[in-house]
From TrEMBL:
Lineage: Bacteria, Bacillati, Actinomycetota, Actinomycetes, Micrococcales
Protein name: Holliday junction branch migration complex subunit RuvB
Gene Ontology BP annotations: DNA recombination; DNA repair
Primary site of residence: cytoplasm
Residues of the AAA+ ATPase domain: 67-200
Entry GO CC: cytoplasm; Holliday junction resolvase complex
Binding site residues for DNA: 326, 331
Domain notes: Has 3 domains, the large (RuvB-L) and small ATPase (RuvB-S) domains and the C-terminal head (RuvB-H) domain. The head domain binds DNA, while the ATPase domains jointly bind ATP, ADP or are empty depending on the state of the subunit in the translocation cycle. During a single DNA translocation step the structure of each domain remains the same, but their relative positions change.
Organism: Cellulosimicrobium arenosum
GO MF annotations, alphabetized: ATP binding; four-way junction DNA binding; four-way junction helicase activity; hydrolase activity
Catalytic activity: ATP + H2O = ADP + phosphate + H(+)
Family classification: Belongs to the RuvB family.
Subcellular location: Cytoplasm
Length: 355
């Protein structure tokens, strides 16, 4: 090990939100991200199907001179939903109004936002699956008929005054498209689903970001970082910043393969993007439970975490990578998990997945 922590950095970060491979971002990080956000559709890397379809929708609307249909963007955190919403507004030359499901407590809050919209504006509703039901119903009407009923007064004396709205474009973003009620989903004329990025696409994201940060990133370092970024541009950009830190403090400033590997070792991100918790779960599964099946609660206690943390923070990526299986009898390690940990399974594992 190196001398470590001379710079006072605490590497014993908690597993959940602050973990370096978390797909979500906190406020501070969102500020760092803003500088790296592509502004135009042609700067947006990858997602060629969605980009192409969206480009048609936008160009057609521009040619006709009216507001495009409402757009729903779905997909896991950190893949570019907010970025695309901003791009939609800028490609249309329209201003963007931002709100979110959790920010709208009452239908009245949404009515206030809607009734202040100007013609052609883009209304971005983040985490739209978290809108409260009454607000959702108000939104249906606004999206379909460009109308809201503004309720004045209270109780028996209350009355609804219909108010017509200028044409606008709603852009909804959600990580949980399945939670959206069908009537709401149906009111979006275009739905784009974002998928995890290939290593090649992440390399392009990284090279672009390095350029914006004013650093030169060696191609083999880009490929090393991309391979550890779990298909997610947000994680790629975050790892890039950590590699830059390492290069500045402990290296010679160059972002080469040596710097990438050393920095990511400090942050305990392994060659396929697993962090300490991911590896702890897999290691416990293989070495303590002979590869399972073992119940989630037992597995969680063994690694000293809450079941929920293991289930929502570690497992999705392990499952996606084919390292862990969820079976009715519990969690099992796949042959790939044993191989990744450099361990030999105690007996033939093949039959576990047949049931
Ligand atoms: N296609 C892309 N090309 C280049 N950079 C991208 C791309 N997609 C995302 N990014 C970068 O990744 C970061 C996260 O993207 P964004 O905030 O749009 O994700 P999100 O899908 O809205 O995530 P969340 O669900 O957490 O809100 C941004 O800094 C953005 O610059
Ligand atoms: Mg977002």
């Amino acid at each position: 090990m190196d001398g470590g922590a001379a710079d006072g950095t605490d590497f014993s970060a908690e597993f959940a939100s602050e973990r370096i491979v978390a797909a979500g971002a906190d406020e501070l990080e969102r500020a760092a991200e803003a500088a790296l956000r592509p502004r135009r559709l042609d700067e947006f890397v990858g997602q060629s199907v969605v980009r192409d379809q969206l480009s048609l929708v936008l160009q057609a609307a521009l040619a006709r001179g009216n507001a495009p249909e409402h757009v729903l963007l779905s997909g896991p955190p950190g893949l570019g939903k907010t970025t695309l919403a901003m791009i939609i507004a800028s490609e249309l030359g329209a201003s963007l109004r931002v709100t979110s499901g959790p920010a709208i407590q009452h239908a009245g809050d949404l009515a206030a936002v809607l009734s202040s919209l100007e013609e052609g504006e883009v209304l971005f509703i983040d985490e739209i699956h978290r809108l409260a039901r009454p607000a959702e119903e108000l939104l249906y009407m606004a999206m379909e008929d460009f109308r809201v009923d503004v309720v004045v007064g209270k109780g028996a004396g209350a009355s609804a005054i219909p108010l017509s709205l200028p044409p606008f474009t709603a852009v909804g973003a959600t990580t949980r498209a399945g939670l959206l009620p069908a009537p709401l989903r149906d009111r979006f004329g275009f739905t784009g689903h974002l998928d995890f990025y290939s290593a090649d696409e992440l390399e392009r994201v990284l090279v672009r970001s390095a350029g914006l940060l004013g650093v030169v990133l060696d191609p083999d370092a880009a490929s090393e970082i991309a391979g550890r970024s779990r298909g997610t541009p947000r994680i790629a950009n975050r790892l890039l910043r950590r590699v830059r830190d390492w290069a500045q403090v402990r290296g010679d400033g160059g972002l080469d393969l040596r710097a990438a590997r050393a920095a990511l070792e400090v942050y305990e991100v392994d060659p396929i993007g697993l962090d300490r918790l991911d590896r702890a779960v897999l290691t416990a599964l293989c070495t303590r439970f002979a590869g399972g099946p073992v119940g989630l609660a037992t597995l969680a206690v063994t690694v000293g975490e809450e079941s929920e943390t293991v289930e929502t923070v570690a497992e999705p990526y392990l499952v996606r990578e084919g390292l862990l299986g969820r079976t009715p009898r519990g969690r099992v390690a796949t042959p790939a998990a044993w191989a990744h940990l450099g361990l030999t399974p105690p007996r033939a594992e093949g039959t576990l997945f047949d049931g």
